[in-house]
Design a protein that fits this description.
The protein is mostly helical and about 475 residues long. The protein has a single domain, classed as Sodium/glucose cotransporter. It has a two-stranded antiparallel sheet with strand order 1-2. The longest helix has about 35 residues. The protein is globular.
């Protein structure tokens, strides 16, 4: 694809995002930045959360993963439904009742100062790593499509990517994000549907034919009952449920969007439609993955070593200019829909949880400096990840989440499902020991547990160890 066309697409896209930012940010005050004035329409949040939840990682890695794992990812998606139900019925009522800006303020009310800071700190670590991995995906694609033509280093392309995000988020914050996420979700889903249509037409499948071909192929295997397999149904299902709880319900990024909705009832409605839609959307992504492999096989195209490269290489080099254009729009929208809200959530959490900023009359300059600081941090982490990455990005995200979100799962579970308090000063130590022990258990599981291999369910183990640690130092509350 001609570099000038790529530049025009990206420039036009970001021009539209900046226009939306200008129209939605108003005075750029702290209340709008942190809470969106609690006036966001629930259906707008629900649609935008699809893009934020899927991100560039799903857009690239999920279709590529079909070659090795088939449709087994749907086992995890089914587990998500259970997790989202818990969020709607347990966590959202709690957050609205306490009128929280940062959801980790609950930990201070329940346990104390050190628990609060520990929860917020683990979110910051989790989201910095997660957002960096997501941005790494789109930066790599833009490197192939545009920057390599001019021999521009990867580090420069990453810097430009982050600067563009900063430009349209620094004023309006979450109020702007709700609207830009909606636009980005539309572009992302449109790109996937259009790509499926183009491949089906090229291979002469037709609408009914493409469904039948995918269903009858080896790629459509959805359930794995082999106990020792990492993609075993029960491992994936329960891991999916807990991943949804921690990466949505215990994540300031995702919950900040929900808390911009005016009422609890509307927020629960948003969660219901979001979770239902996500099942069908993930099926569409997996179907795309199956078609990509079929296309490559029929055309005699060599499958790349890294499965993450399959979709971008075919879209940019084999599907024609139109397909390349919609792919670039889709991957850019998918990556930025997650990264921009993550940057806003990181700024919110650090400002509220560590700087104690007043969300009504917060210091605007201080908020902007925090925003800049996290932009720089994301840049550094992306560059580091580029140097050491040796696995599928979607796997890397969930692997890291198992270690960093586990303590949050244990802390919130202990607070919600027991009437015990704990010795607050020991909570940071417990939260560090739990991931370390989880890593040790995972490393030696095959030899100790007759070949059993931990997958994403390691998150549950991590949370359980944290729970046990809090219980070991527990005491009865006064209430």
């Amino acid at each position: 694809m001609h570099p000038g066309l790529v530049l025009g697409i990206i420039g036009g896209y970001f021009g539209l995002l900046i226009l939306i930012s200008y129209l939605t940010s108003g005075k750029g005050d702290s209340k709008a930045f942190f809470t969106g004035n609690r006036q966001s329409p629930w259906y707008l949040v629900a649609f935008g959360m699809i893009g934020a939840s899927l991100s560039g990682i799903t857009f690239i890695s999920l279709p590529g993963s079909v070659g090795a794992n088939g449709f087994t990812y749907m086992q995890m998606v089914l587990g998500y439904m259970v997790g989202y139900f818990v969020i709607a019925k347990v966590l959202l009522p709690l957050y609205y009742k306490l009128d929280l800006i940062s959801i980790y303020q609950y930990l201070e009310q329940r346990f104390g100062f050190w628990s609060y800071k520990t929860g917020a700190f683990f979110f910051l670590i989790s989201r910095v790593i997660g957002a960096s991995l997501r941005l790494f995906v789109v930066a790599g694609v833009l490197q192939i499509a545009f920057f390599n033509t001019f021999n521009i280093p990867f580090e420069i392309s990453v810097l430009i990517t982050i600067m563009l995000i900063w430009v349209y988020t620094f004023r309006g914050g979450i109020k702007t994000i709700v609207w830009t996420d909606t636009l980005q979700t539309f572009f992302m889903l449109s790109a996937v549907v259009a790509t499926i249509y183009l491949i089906s037409a090229e291979l002469d499948f037709g609408t009914e034919g493409v469904l039948q071909t995918i269903t009858e192929s080896n790629y459509s295997t959805m359930f794995d009952w082999e106990w020792q397999s990492k993609t075993n149904f029960f491992k994936q299902f329960f891991a999916g449920a807990f991943i949804a709880i921690v990466m949505t319900g215990l994540d300031q990024d995702m919950m900040q969007k929900n808390l911009t909705v005016k009422s609890l009832k509307d927020s629960q409605k948003n969660m219901f439609w979001f979770s239902t839609s996500l099942v069908f959307v993930n099926l569409v992504f997996l179907a795309l993955g199956a078609l990509l492999y079929m296309y490559a096989q029929q055309k005699g195209i060599e499958i790349p070593v890294k499965s993450d490269d399959l979709y971008p290489l075919l879209a940019l080099n084999n599907f024609g200019t139109f397909a390349g254009v919609i792919f670039l729009l889709g991957i850019t929208a998918a990556a930025y829909s997650s990264a921009d809200s993550a940057l806003t959530a990181l700024t919110t959490s650090f400002s509220v949880d560590f700087l104690g900023m007043d969300t009504e009359k917060g210091n605007k300059n201080q908020r902007m400096l925090t925003h800049v600081g996290f932009s720089i941090l994301l840049f550094i982490v992306i560059v580091i990840f580029n140097a050491i990455n040796d696995q599928s990005v979607i796997s890397a995200v969930f692997t890291i989440a198992g270690y960093t979100y586990g303590p949050l799962l244990g802390m919130f579970a202990f607070g919600l499902f027991t009437d015990l308090s704990t010795k607050d000063r020991f909570v940071p130590i417990i939260a560090v020991i739990a991931p370390v022990l989880s890593y040790v258990i995972s490393s030696y599981s095959e030899s100790l547990l007759n070949g059993y291999k931990f997958g994403f369910e390691l998150l549950i183990v991590n949370g359980f160890i944290t729970f046990l640690g809090l219980w070991a130092f527990s005491k009865k509350t006064n209430s």
